[in-house]
Amino acid sequence: MILSDTSNIVREKKRAKMSFNRIFLNIIIILCVCLNWDCSEGAHEKQRRAINSHTIQLSSLFPSPSSPCVLSTRASNTKSSLHVTHRHGTCSRITSAKAKSPDHAEILRLDQARVNSIHSKLSKKLTDRVRQSKSTALPAKDGSTYGTGNYVVTVGIGTPKHDLSLIFDTGSDLTWIQCEPCVRTCYSQKEPIFNPSSSSSYHNVSCSSAECSSLSSATGNSGSCSASNCVYGIQYGDQSFSVGFLAKEKFTLTASNVFDGVSFGCGENNQGLFTGVAGLLGLGRDKLSFPSQTASTYNKIFSYCLPSSASYTGHLTFGSAGISRSVKFTPISTITDGTSFYGLDIVGISVGGQDLAIPPTVFSTPGGLIDSGTVISRLPPRAYAALRSSFKAKMLQYKNTSAVSILDTCFDLTGLKTVTIPTVSFRFSGGAVVELGSRGVLYAFKMSQVCLAFAGNSDENNAAIFGNVQQQTLEVVYDGAGGRVGFAPNGCK
Ligand SMILES: *[C@@H]1O[C@H](CO)[C@@H](O)[C@H](O)[C@H]1NC(C)=O
Ligand SMILES: *[C@@H]1O[C@H](CO)[C@@H](O)[C@H](O)[C@H]1NC(C)=O
């Protein structure tokens, strides 16, 4: 009896041990599977939900002006790479301690001036094409290109080299800097104004040269002559301008990336919204642009990442060095052929993982482009209406508030620590799908006014523009030779 009891106990213990082993084994199996992100319905659900929204700390929308600058590792480690900074902020070499933070309403007003000018340039091109097909007259150009972007790189110019901060712009071609002597006006800039007479590698360009003839397509104004030297003039949509001599100089990007004889404008009369910077680096598609002039080295390939705040740097990299394998490409569309712009065909948008019902012709009729200098993306009116209503429906837990400038969908987030916003993805022709970074969806004026960072065009025939707020933290690749533009997530912070 006792014996049988004992053997029973032993048997029970054995059974318990076996089932414990089985449970333990099962736990191990579950753990292993879970670690492979393939655990159970629950994890799938969690993962699906995580992809359809982002929760962001509201404090990250308002970086402290005293936070230290964090440098891009890509820019630090790639030989043909420059640090990209916001024009204003901790990482910028041209921000003075006294500088006021940018006036958002003013930025958006100027943004609309730039967009109007892009649209008029494109529609002019269409009418020119019609006119040209009827007669042999040369297309008339109004000579006005559009305003100024907000991202800056530092380039060495001349011999000895002067490090100068330039706004880079994929929407224009001519590179120019302010030069001494300032015969009319120079606006104020942080670094000393370049003096060509102190550089041994400076050369004037003659007005009979091919470069001088290229000015009409690069700037919309043909070059003129002064004592057989070529004079350029470029005017931007916001009435800023630069006038001076077309010249050639040595450009030093980095110690191992030096170019002799780069054509650029040495501007002796400059005015407008460039305050602080020394000039502009033209990255457009015309033959006078910097990528075209350095094509034999970089094959018209460059990439950049625009940082999410003024306390990080991003990068501008020439050539294909370090381009991520996860970049998805879409062809440069033909709508912008004959202009500086890189055409981009948007074919769809999804919000929170759901495709918006937008008929394809809404995008294909006006076409679109990508621009480093436009701040807020512009969408055809019907596409914007669909985006706005879907976004609003997913933001019902937040208090709405009044519109500001061109942004009509705003929220009062006073008192909150975080905000959960639906993901927004763009689909481009050829099938590339790009999810915007979490900072590419909202534009924050103040805690009580945080807005959806998109606007609708007023005319359905105006081109869509993929602007720089939406490009933040994406790696954006321009492959001029391959005729394509590409995107990958997490290009910088
Ligand atoms: C370039 O042209 C300007 C204007 O004619 C002249 O003042 C300057 O000396 C020239 N520079 C060189 C290096 O030839
Ligand atoms: C908030 O949304 C409601 C409902 O759409 C609307 O009636 C109200 O005018 C909005 N408030 C503001 C401040 O825009």
Automatic annotation (TrEMBL):
Residues the record marks as active site: 169, 371
Transmembrane feature ranges: 20-38
Keyword NADP (UniProt): no
Stored SUPFAM superfamilies: Acid proteases
Entry keyword set: Aspartyl protease, Disulfide bond, Hydrolase, Membrane, Protease, Signal, Transmembrane, Transmembrane helix
InterPro entries: Aspartic_peptidase_A1, Aspartic_peptidase_AS, CND41-like, PEPTIDASE_A1, Peptidase_aspartic_dom_sf, TAXi_C, TAXi_N
Domain of life where this protein originates: Eukaryota
PROSITE patterns: ASP_PROTEASE, PEPTIDASE_A1
An annotated GO BP: proteolysis
Domain Peptidase A1 residue range list: 151-488
One example GO MF annotation: aspartic-type endopeptidase activity
Family from the record: Belongs to the peptidase A1 family.
Protein's name in the database: Aspartyl protease family protein At5g10770
Species for this entry: Raphanus sativus (Radish)
Upper classification of the organism: Eukaryota, Viridiplantae, Streptophyta, Embryophyta, Tracheophyta
